[in-house]
């Protein structure tokens, strides 16, 4: 709000996804922001306002800090599937997961208590909606808000959120700023953050690329609730918790908690459909819950395959107004494809598209190439099967012909007839679908086989008898045919003589 006076605000975890947006928004509103991170950014123009965690532990926060917000801590899905390979590594990761959040909240709380001339009026710690039990275990599914007074969920996320909030409220009374100032204490507020959606980070950045390739879809059953919040509203709720005139918790709200979630109640399938529609892609391929458990383990997989319907009831009652309450509208804000058409003096049209249009075209080209490759592989398999069938049929015909008995008196005619049948059978083999090189190789093989059988027949005793018969026929015709054939007469010469005397 323009009426809010500039303040000095310390932000832990300022280099994270939400932290970057929060620091940018606070500085644009005129506030002085002191960042606390693992390392000091080399390009930070405000080096005097950039601290590291070891420096805060040794020297505390600068004097004059009025508000403190902590966003630091490792993500519960940060390490990916690698932790499945080692139980020791997984336990070490869980320990670091708790220490990175709880230890740094305590570090900021201790440093805030030492700020002079007076401690900061508020300390805001970020928890998550994983605190609430699953809505999928009851029918109809319950909707949780800040008035929930039951035990936190027993999952890893629930235990982590409960530990974070215990550290936020540790040793401090949950009251108004006036009461806190009277006791020299700092008002503690916990913000239960939903799934923060933004184009350049967070959950959406890792979800978007499968959808860009056309292979995205729901996770698990798709019926699990997703308590989401637009990144601008996530920053807005944090600024509301830091700067707004918040009333003290009423009896219906037993703690100073604000839910940073959109008022809409959506499921994972609706999130996938909205993302796919904004990218102009289908959402057909579902990631089975078993695959998610295999990748992240049963404890961490619940973050993706389970969830709770959450309402920001107290956040709305304290005066915050959400900018994005519709999931599809939020997705359209992230993935806009702008086209401007204008006519130049020469009557030409120029179209300017965002980078999203280029990605759409590249994905379409990739899909066409994959479809063509799949078609070629299928055709090759069909041709291979057809060639094998033709070869088997040809081999069967050749074996049947070789098994036929030939009588001695008709041996010559039978041998020649068999060769003619083999030639006819070879001609009958369909070569339509064979490449030219295979055609030529098969034909050469058949001709070589016939030539070998012909040479073997010329050396047979039957050929000598045929030559003698030709000589006798020649004598009966008066010797006009040239008498008896020489012993080296070829099969073709015998054939011609037989045709002459027949």
UniProtKB/TrEMBL annotation:
SUPFAM superfamilies: NAD(P)-binding Rossmann-fold domains (SSF51735). Gene3D superfamilies: NAD(P)-binding Rossmann-like Domain. Residues 405-424, 478-502 are annotated as: Disordered. Pfam families: DUF1731 (PF08338), Epimerase (PF01370), MXRA7_helical (PF25473). It comes from the Eukaryota. Residues 287-333 form the DUF1731 domain. Residues 438-502 form the Matrix-remodeling-associated protein 7 helical domain. Residues 9-63 form the NAD-dependent epimerase/dehydratase domain. PANTHER family: EPIMERASE FAMILY PROTEIN SDR39U1, SUGAR NUCLEOTIDE EPIMERASE RELATED. This is DUF1731 domain-containing protein. It comes from Macrostomum lignano. The lineage of its organism: Eukaryota, Metazoa, Spiralia, Lophotrochozoa, Platyhelminthes.
